[in-house]
Design goal:
alpha/beta, 5-stranded parallel beta sheet, about 140 residues
């Protein structure tokens, strides 16, 4: 089963973010083995990247995709032998340059700025949506 690790700088405190993340992690469990790693706001994500994982850095200068394109990208990676995906989400000042340089791919959620806590919820929802699209369910309309 595909493993998905999301490494986040900053810890969730607000109950609505925690509840939303918990719900999407539960849903993702049907298609992958998801894990969220929380670091301190200024924590270094590099040592926490799993060996052999395909690393995606979320950053504004990354590639912007719609949901079906993200689904195709994830499907292509899995078909190409990737068994572990790792996503990096920076804190309030973004990811360190070293983390972006380490990434295999950079993904932008939008040109707009979002709180990094909301970005976590948005990423988990988009991953769930992508897996749902690839599975042919009716979640994505």
């Amino acid at each position: 089963m595909l493993r998905v690790t999301v490494i986040c700088q900053g810890r969730l405190k607000e109950p609505w973010y925690i509840d939303a993340c918990r719900e999407y992690l539960k849903r993702l469990g049907a298609w992958c083995k998801p894990e969220v790693v929380e670091l301190a706001e200024d924590g270094d994500p590099l040592p926490r990247i799993p060996k052999g994982a395909y690393v995606t850095a979320l950053c504004i200068e990354g590639e912007a995709l719609d949901s079906p394109a993200l689904a195709r990208r994830l499907e292509k990676l899995a078909a190409g032998g990737v068994s572990h995906l790792c996503f990096l989400i920076g804190g309030s000042v973004g990811l360190p340059a070293e983390a972006k340089a380490r990434a295999d791919w950079r993904l932008s959620m939008s040109e707009m700025t979002f709180p990094h806590h909301l970005a976590r919820v948005m990423l988990l929802e988009q991953l769930y949506r992508a897996f749902s699209i690839n599975a042919g369910t009716k979640y994505h309309k």
